[in-house]
Amino acid sequence: MQPDSKLSSPLLQVHRFGNVTRMTLNRPEKRNALSEELISVIDQTLQKIQVDHETHVVILAAAGPVFSSGHDLKEMVGRSEKEYEQIFSNCSAMMQLLTRIPQPVIAQVQGMATAAGCQLVAACDLAVSSQAATFATPGVAIGLFCSTYSSGTNFPSAINFLMRAASLVWF
Predict the structure, then answer these.
(1) By the 8 A CB rule, do 153 and 118 touch?
(2) Which DSSP state fits 66?
(3) HSE-up (13 A, CA, CB side) for residue 37
């Protein structure tokens, strides 16, 4: 795969192989936690990919042993309610964009995906996981649950994925 210098950043490496674009979360030292900056970079990259007619399929992967540990909680300490709302709004917009781009998005999960990281997987059209992959929503134990909108786990999204996949094969 060739790196795409127009789309890659230190936080998100983007490579192309023919009509496949692979986005790799690149914060392994932080367990690929979704920082504000990473959420923004993913969103900006998806905006460019959705109008890229050369990309037919997107793979979302992660560097290191953890797919994503969810929101970067260290970054969220001491924030105001308005700041929390903005962070979650930006994350929600990114997840919604992930479900709406015309290309099918496949999560390639090689390790643990927790909280918003698990939700990131669920926002994809399809997930392929290694035997080492684990999924968790730990906030449930204390009455919290990721509420960022994601239609990636419902039946209409599955139908949408199949229709998009079929269009790549037959048209």
Answers:
(1) no
(2) E
(3) 8
Is residue 45 within 8 A of residue 11, CB to CB? The reply is no
pLDDT tens digits, 34-73: 999 999 999 999 999 999 999 999 999 999 999 999 999 9
Say how far apart CA 41 and CA 59 lie, in whole Å: 16
What single letter denotes the amino acid at residue 22? R
- Pairing state between β 20-25 and 12-17: antiparallel
- CA Rg value for the chain: 15
In DSSP terms, which residues pair with 59 in a beta bridge?
Answer: 22, 106
User: Rounded to whole angstroms, how far apart are CA atoms 61 and 75?
Assistant: 23
Question: How far is it, in rounded angstroms, from Cα 161 to Cα 171?
Answer: 15
